[in-house]
Amino acid sequence: MSTRDVTTQTFQSDVLEASKPVVVDFWAAWCGPCRMVSPILDQIADEHGDKLEVVKVNVDENPQLAAQYQITSIPALKVFQGGEVVQSIIGAKPKAALEADLAAFIG
């Protein structure tokens, strides 16, 4: 169960109405650090998919979502629970650091 893409049209149902926490990766194809984080997020999704979901939002294709959630630098990870942002993680990090940041949701 790796990551999947979410768009403005599917954000409400896929993220805001999700039954478990959702990590949203705001990224862009031209962003080097985004490409470094992507396989790490795939691993976290595969290993912890029973506890949380990991989805991706391309900021170039969904600028209104990026603006709505005040994304000013990427990669930006936002953890949603119950339709609200409960945690923000900015920048590329190694897997251990990301897992530590997400420990409250995957622990």
TrEMBL record:
Keyword Electron transport: yes
GO biological process, one term: cell redox homeostasis
Protein family per UniProt: Belongs to the thioredoxin family.
Keyword Transport (UniProt): yes
Residues annotated as site: Contributes to redox potential value: 32-33
Protein name: Thioredoxin
InterPro entries recorded: Thioredoxin, Thioredoxin-like_sf, Thioredoxin_CS, Thioredoxin_domain
Gene3D superfamilies: Glutaredoxin
Gene from which this protein is expressed: trxA
Domain Thioredoxin: 1-107
Catalytic residues as annotated in Swiss-Prot or TrEMBL: 31, 34
Keywords assigned: Disulfide bond, Electron transport, Redox-active center, Transport
A GO MF term: protein-disulfide reductase activity
Cystine residue pairs: 31-34
Pfam families: Thioredoxin (PF00085)
Taxonomy of the source species: Bacteria, Bacillati, Actinomycetota, Actinomycetes, Micrococcales
Coiled-coil portions: none
Classification via PANTHER family: GEO12009P1
GO cellular component, one term: cytosol
Biological source species: Mycetocola reblochoni
Residues of the site described as Deprotonates C-terminal active site Cys: 25
